[in-house]
Write a structure and sequence with these properties.
This protein is mainly α. Helices cover 74% and strands 0% of the residues. The protein has one domain.
Length: 80
């Protein structure tokens, strides 16, 4: 087994505490007082940290789901 393969195995099979914290933080992100654009940019940044091995298409889907979940109620009404 090559070194790169071993590193991939460790990253894929044994996520670090930091990676797990990033996932929890991403899943709990809410808009609060941020503008919508800033909230969306935070989601895009955090999804790359929380799910680095996930395909870009799937990352975008997670961002979309969390975006709608984390919006303030008055912004949710405008979106629908």
């Amino acid at each position: 087994m090559f070194v790169g393969q071993k590193i991939y195995t460790f990253l894929h099979d044994f996520p670090t505490i930091t990676a797990e914290k990033s996932k929890v933080k991403f899943q709990n992100l809410v808009q609060s007082n941020d503008p919508v654009g800033h909230f969306y940019a935070n989601l895009k940044r955090m999804v790359k940290l929380a799910f680095p091995l996930l395909l870009a298409v799937n990352q975008d889907e997670l961002v979309k789901q969390q975006f709608f979940q984390g919006l303030k109620p008055d912004n949710q009404i405008e979106v629908r």
